[in-house]
């Protein structure tokens, strides 16, 4: 995922023009995307286990390939795996498990935002951290297929609307003004 976001933000032609630029973007992407993706999935697992579920992460390397290839054409489909859980669970608990990931990404936006006050490497980490985590929250809240938004929508439309709205507005603002 770090490579996909580095390609997306850095644009392939700029990355190919400078090895130093490419390595810098990949490193910053690894820090920010790695943190966002790992904590998003870990949040699902922690909440699922809290509700008595057996939970594990399953990678989907085909979707990781799609994420990297889509970055070359200007967008990212960010679904390289998911936490799967099993056991008896209520619809509310299932909704809270799904909500945990995107809410974690929104919390990470707040964590990375102060880095925007700095220049240089710290500022770049702030930019990537805010944009990546806002995007991950919004993307995962789309109410389709296996994405978290579908489960949250089925559980509670008000919770879905508020969370999705915050995620989308945060994403749009971060991409417009950062």
- How much helical structure, as a percent, in the residues? over 70%
Largest sheet: 2 strands, antiparallel
**End-to-end distance:** 21 Å
Count of DSSP H/I helices:
8
The helix-and-strand class reads mainly alpha
Q: Would you identify the regions where 5 or more consecutive residues have pLDDT less than 50? A: none
Question: Strand order of the main beta sheet, please?
Answer: 1-2
Condensed summary:
The chain has 178 residues and is mainly α. It has 8 helices and 2 strands, in the order αααβαβαααα.
Helix and strand layout, with pairings?
Elements: H1 2-10, H2 12-17, H3 19-50, E1 54-59, H4 61-72, E2 81-86, H5 91-112, H6 120-140, H7 148-155, H8 157-177
Description:
With 178 residues, the protein is mainly alpha-helical. It is built from eight helices and two strands. The protein has helices at residues 2-10, 12-17, 19-50, 61-72, 91-112, 120-140, 148-155, 157-177; strands spanning 54-59, 81-86. It has a two-stranded antiparallel sheet with strand order 1-2. The two termini are 21 Å apart.
